[in-house]
Every structure is written in structure tokens, then in C-alpha cells.
Write a structure and sequence with these properties.
Keywords: Signal. It comes from Geobacter pickeringii. This is Organic solvent tolerance ABC transporter substrate-binding protein. InterPro entries: MlaC/ttg2D, Tgt2/MlaC_sf. Helix content is 52%, strand content 20%. The radius of gyration is 17 Å and the shape is globular.
């Protein structure tokens, strides 16, 4: 249940409009979190017949403050420079689909969890927003957002759950597959996973 809650909120903050990428790092995160809570709490959108509409709205908005290109590059680490331009484009698109579809259902499992914002750390063009998730059973979990400034807007490039980096976690998985089976095998697995978890 712990990871279900955390994963639900992991991408939840990114459900926003482009305007949410403006303001201080904490404002960017808070506005987006507030918006996703509004969406998943909407009684009309919760109706079964509105599921496609709700899911499509969530998917369309997810990329507003989520820098998939940066995340994809960091997740590939040293293997990124070995890829051609078309390969980088394809991988980024597959990575984006993986994240969008993986958490679409989990985002909707929101159950009145409380989000408490803590310290904001800004160092030049980089920032970190710390927060805590408090469940209805009074359990608490740390959820921190790492952002970087691009084009005058703060964009999220990593999320750290209880000290575990999302990007670092994917980097370990991707490196293991590429090292043992090759890059084509990774692409094949990502394609298969995208099909497996494709939203309705």
C-alpha cells in the first residue's frame, strides 16, 4: 500500500497546465499537486463512462512540467551518447509512454492523503522541493522533487521517494539490460511494457 500511494503521487504532481511550470519551484509543484487532486476527486470524472476522458486528460497534461527528455538522458547515463538522434527520439517517446501509462491508474487511487511541503533548496538553475505524504492512517513518507530551470521555467527531472531516486532506479535497470542483452533488447522490452500497460 505504501508504494501504491507513493507511486500514485509520483506523477500526480505533473498533472497540470503549462502555466504550472511558472513560479518558484515549490509553487510549481504545489499548483500541480492541487490540480491532480482536483481531477481525481471530481465525482463526475470518477464515473465509469468518463474513464477515457479522465485518462486522456491526465495523459495530455502529464508532460507540462515533466522533462522527459532530461529524464531519459539521465536514465541512460553513459549509454546515451552512443545512441543516434533517431534512437534518442524513439527512446524518449517510449520512456514517456512508460511513465504516463504506468501511473495513470495509480494516480486515481488517491484517498485523501495529505501533502505537506517542507524546505525548498535552490542552487542556481537547480532546485529541490521536499514534501511529506501523510496517509489517513497517519503514516508519513518523504517525497522530494528535483527541478532544473529551462527557458525560464522550472521543470521536474527526478523524484525521490523515501531516499530512492526514480531516475537512478531506471538507470540501474536499463544499464543491466543493455550490458547483458544489448540496447535493442531494452527497446523491445519498453515497447512490450507500453503495450501491456496501455490505458483504455
Amino acid at each position: 500500500m505504501k508504494w501504491l500511494i507513493l507511486q500514485a503521487l509520483l506523477l500526480g504532481f505533473a498533472i497540470s497546465t503549462p502555466a504550472f511550470a511558472q513560479g518558484t519551484p515549490t509553487e510549481v509543484v504545489k499548483k500541480a499537486v492541487d490540480e491532480v487532486i482536483r481531477i481525481v476527486s471530481d465525482k463526475e470524472l470518477k464515473k465509469p463512462q468518463n474513464e477515457p476522458k479522465r485518462r486522456q486528460g491526465l495523459k495530455k497534461a502529464i508532460g507540462a512540467v515533466f522533462d522527459y527528455g532530461e529524464m531519459a538522458q539521465r536514465s541512460m547515463a553513459r549509454h546515451w551518447k552512443e545512441r543516434s538522434a533517431p534512437e534518442k527520439k524513439e527512446f524518449t517517446e517510449l520512456f514517456e509512454t512508460l511513465l504516463e501509462n504506468s501511473y495513470a491508474g495509480k494516480i486515481e487511487s488517491y484517498n485523501q492523503e495529505k501533502v505537506v511541503y517542507g524546505k525548498e533548496i535552490v542552487e542556481g538553475e537547480s532546485a529541490e522541493v521536499r514534501s511529506r505524504i501523510i496517509t489517513t492512517k497517519r503514516d508519513e513518507y518523504a517525497l522530494d522533487y528535483r527541478l532544473m530551470k529551462k527557458g525560464g521555467k522550472w521543470m521536474v527531472y527526478d523524484v525521490v521517494i523515501e531516499g530512492v531516486s526514480l531516475v537512478a532506479n531506471y538507470r540501474t535497470q536499463f544499464n543491466k539490460i543493455i550490458t547483458s542483452e544489448g540496447y535493442p533488447a531494452l527497446v523491445k522490452k519498453l515497447r512490450a511494457k507500453s503495450e501491456e500497460i496501455k490505458t483504455p
